[in-house]
What we know:
Blueprint: H1 3-23, H2 25-43, H3 48-78, H4 83-120
Amino acid sequence: MKVKRLFKSFYNAWQGIKYVFKQEQNFKIQLLISILVLLLIWYLPLSKGEMIVVILLIFIVLILELMNTAFEKLADVLKPRLFYQIGIVKDIMAAMVFLSSIGAIIIGLIIFWPYLFELFY
């Protein structure tokens, strides 16, 4: 394995993250919420299992947003010929991110609620 090639792939991945961060408002919002949740994990006495679940959910939502953006950019190339179908694909991709976010919120509430309730009452 060539180290230079490995670092090039890391660089390219970082460029992709930077691009999505600059171009996609939802990614910025999701990243901000992720940071707040990570701070909450640090502050509350969650079990290791709970921490793992929350961190996995954070990464799943962020990865799906990256995939959504990638598919949207690819779809934009095909858009003139396949306008209606591309619109459906974009809607489905957005729904995928939306549902994963809703699921993450529900699971997050189930995990955090007892700790927050105990903290404030």
